[in-house]
Specification:
With 122 residues, this protein is mainly α. It has helices spanning 12-26, 52-67, 76-82, 85-90, 99-120; strands at 30-34, 70-74. It has a two-stranded parallel ribbon with strand order 1-2.
Length: 122
C-alpha cells in the first residue's frame, strides 16, 4: 500500500485534477475505493441531489482506466466490519480526525488481507 489520506472533493473538477495528480506522482498499479449505493431507505434524501459521491467514483474509475490502473471496490460494511477503529489503533494506524482517511485505509487493508489473495491465488 502506497498512500492513504483525504483530498478535497468539491468541486468535482478540482477533485478530479487532484486525483489525476496523485496517480501521476504515485504511479499505482491498483487502486481500492469504497463503492456507493443509494439504499431504498435513504432514497428520499437523494431526491434532487447532484450525487456527488457517485460522480467522484466515476472520475476515479475513468482516470484509472485511462492510466491502466486496476481498481477494486468494496461496500462500506465489508471493510468496516473487519478493520475496526480498535484494530487500527492496535496496529498503530489510526489517524485521529481523518474519518475518510481511516475508511480508505480500511479498504486498502481489507483488500490486502482478503481480496488480493482471491485474485492472485496466493
Amino acid at each position: 500500500m502506497v498512500e492513504y489520506g483525504e483530498l478535497p472533493s468539491d468541486p468535482i473538477e478540482h477533485a478530479t485534477d487532484l486525483i489525476e495528480e496523485k496517480l501521476r506522482l504515485l504511479k499505482p498499479n491498483h487502486l481500492v475505493y469504497e463503492d456507493y449505493r443509494v439504499y431504498s431507505w435513504r432514497s428520499a434524501a437523494h431526491s434532487w441531489s447532484a450525487l456527488h459521491t457517485p460522480q467522484l467514483i466515476g472520475s476515479i474509475r475513468t482516470l484509472c482506466r485511462q492510466k491502466g490502473v486496476l481498481t477494486t471496490h468494496h461496500m462500506a460494511h465489508e471493510a468496516k466490519t473487519f478493520v475496526t477503529d480498535d484494530k487500527l489503533r492496535e496496529w498503530h494506524m489510526y489517524k485521529s480526525g481523518q474519518k475518510h482517511a481511516r475508511d480508505a485505509l480500511r479498504h486498502g487493508l481489507f483488500y490486502l488481507l482478503f481480496t488480493h489473495k482471491k485474485r492472485t491465488n496466493i
